[in-house]
Amino acid sequence: MFDISSRELAEAYHQADVELLKTKKPQVYDFQIVSSTGKNKSVIFNKAIFTDQAGEVAGIIGVIQDITEMKQAQEYLQKVNEEIIDTQKEVIYTLGEIIETRSQEAAKHVVRVAEYSHLIGLKYGLNQEDAMLLKIAAPMHDIGKIGIPDHILNKPGPLTREEFDCIKTHTTIGYNIMKKSSHKILKIAGIIALSHHERWDGTGYPQGIAGEQINVFSRIVSVADVFDAVSHKRCYKEAWPLHQVRHYLVEQCGKMFDPRVITLFLDNWEEILMIRSEYSDASS
After folding, report:
1. Is 47 among the catalytic positions?
2. Over 60: is that where the pLDDT of 284 sits?
3. Range from 10-19, 47-56, 214-223 that averages highest in pLDDT
4. pLDDT digits over 203-232, tens only?
5. Residue ranges of the domains in the chain?
6. What separation, in Å, do the N-terminal and C-terminal C-alpha atoms of the chain show?
7. Where residue 4 falls among pLDDT bands split at 50, 70, 90?
C-alpha cells in the first residue's frame, strides 16, 4: 500500500486531473514515493479518462505500477556498462603509454594528445559522444610502433631512407592490429593510427590522401601529436620554445594541417597550454 495521500501529492494529482479532463490525453508519470513501510519506491502512474455509452466523460482511471526492481536492474546494467568503458579506456591508455615508453617518448605524451584532441574536437563541432570517442582512441595513434625495431625507433641521429620507410609502416601496422575489432573505439583507433601522418596537401603517408579525404579524427590528432612532439624533448631533438612551435603551426596551415583545426588550436591556445601544464611530464 503506497502512501500517496499527502496534501502536496493530492494537490498535484488534482491539477493533473484538471489537465487530463481538458486535453483528454493519457498521462504517464515516473516518480519516487514512500511506501507505508517507509521504503522508497519507483513507480509509474498511468491515468486516462473513460467515457459512457454516449461518449461523455464518465471518470478518470489510474494505475500505479511498482518499477523499483526494474529501475535497480537498469541502474546496475548502466554501472556495469560504465565499468566496461572505463576498463577499455584504461587498457587503451596503458597500451599507448607502453608504446611511448618503448620509443622513449615523453611520459604523458598520449594523455596530452588525448586531452588536446578532445578539446579541439568539441570546438570543431563534434558531439559529446564523438569527442569522447576521439579522446579515448587518440592514445593509440602510434600503437603500430610496436612492430618497429628498437635500433630504428630510438635512433638519436637522422634516419636513412630505408629506416624512415620502416618507421612509416607503423601506420599500417597499427591499422592492421585494430581493423578486425568489432568495438567502435578500437575501429576509430585504427583509423587514427592509419592516417594521422597524412597531410592536408596530399603529400603524407601511407595513402597520400588529401583534405577532407582524411578522417576528421586523424586531422585533429595530427595537430595535437605534432604540437606535443615538437614542444617536448625527444631522443633525437631538444624541445622547441613555444613561440617557435606556434610559428610552425601557422607555417604548416593548409600544408601539413587542416586550416580549420589550426585556427581552432590557435584560438584556444591558452587552454592548450593549461592542458600541457596540467599533464606535464614532471607530474608523472
Report:
1. no
2. no
3. 214-223
4. 999 999 999 999 999 999 999 999 999 998
5. 7-66, 79-283
6. 57
7. very low
Q: Which of 108, 123, 135, 145 is catalytic?
A: 145
Cell of 82: 560504465
Query: Whole-angstrom Cα distance, residue 237 to residue 239?
Result: 7
CATH 3.40.50.720 fits 7-66, yes or no: no
CATH topology of domain 79-283: Hypothetical protein af1432 (1.10.3210)
Q: How confident is the model at residue 107 (pLDDT cuts 50, 70, 90)?
A: low
Distance from C-alpha of 196 to C-alpha of 194, rounded to nearest angstrom: 6
